[in-house]
Amino acid sequence: MASGPLSGVRVLEFSQIIAGPFCGQHLADMGADVIKFEPVEGEPWRVFNELIPKESRTFASLNRGKRSVAMDMTRPEAQAVIHRLARTADVVVINYRPGVAEQLKIDYDTLSAINPRIIYCENTAFGRHGPLAQRGGYDIVVQAMTGLMAGEGKMQGEVPTYIYPAVADYATGIQMTNAICAALFHRERTGKGQRIDCTLMGTALAMQTSQFTWIEAWDDEVFPQMLDEIREARLRKASFAEQQAIHRKYRPVAPGNIYYRVFQTADGFIAVGALSDSLRRKVLAATGLHDPRFKEDGTFEMNPEGWEEIGPKLVEEAEALYRTKTTAEWGEIFEKHGVPAGPMYFVEELFGHPQTEANGLEIKVEHELLGTMRMVGPPFQMSESPLKPTKASPVLGADTDDVLAEAGLDASEIAAMREAGIVV
Question: Which one of 29, 169, 220, 267 is the catalytic residue?
Fold first, then answer.
């Protein structure tokens, strides 16, 4: 029996790949009855690098706790079933390409006419308005177009490459969940449903707040000149590294970073995070390093005169120092001094970690075909309405008959739809 703050909420999910399914999984973790509609062959993520037919690691990781209906939604009979279910549904989650919802008659205008209280959350790559409104897009495309990729600066050979995992997709899934919960609250107060539009582009820009802020008094002279130089560099086919150098010239990063970075130790790596003056002093106390940017009056000057030469030398000194002790030894030292720090892991090393287990971040579920699965649990908890995932991802079409019955179809009608190839 589902529990959680959204217990009793019914969600119709028409989505695939990451953003929409990730949203649906969060809603299911919160207790909602999430019915996932898939084509009869299954959504693309089911058959991506399959472990067994119709089951993949990627699909199983994003569709926990849902029910699956497999049907040919291009058929009028299937659309009629969806319309029946929409009468009592609370939420629709959809992330099909622009125009597909209208073709399938599951667009907002159609479903809200059936149920004015419905909350309809649609995710697109670029939004419903503007010159790119009808363009499809994946995370990699949005990363490229919004500056995420350039800002990260990762290279594959001589060209930029994407950030992994698909940060815009996953963050948009969380954003969709957030918006749906707000809309449910609004409906509780007003009785009104509404449309929610989320975009990968909007999420990707929202994650770059300081970079995507133009302060006219400071930036009117800098940004246009920088952009002109970058455009000129592209016209002459300059390398990405050269374009990065132009960007850094106008938006430089101060050299000599010893406070917010990863260091190699005697047996691994450790990340140190100290962004305030008080924490920087604690780093110096813990390591014995001397940073001349701290003045006698206690103030810290980020980039003093001559720092371009002094900063790299301080970095070299710090790097040599960190290599003299193990990660565990540095961890104990930093904990004693109150410095935020931690070892670098591969994600698989977090299975069985006492911190993930103590906070419910690793759970076990039993999959009908794949068997026992250990996977990430809900990323937050609530004291009065705790989240408790109830089941693994569904087998394709596992719940088709039950959901059709809930729509009012009897056994003979369901059999006829199956005979006609509308459902499996």
Answer: 169
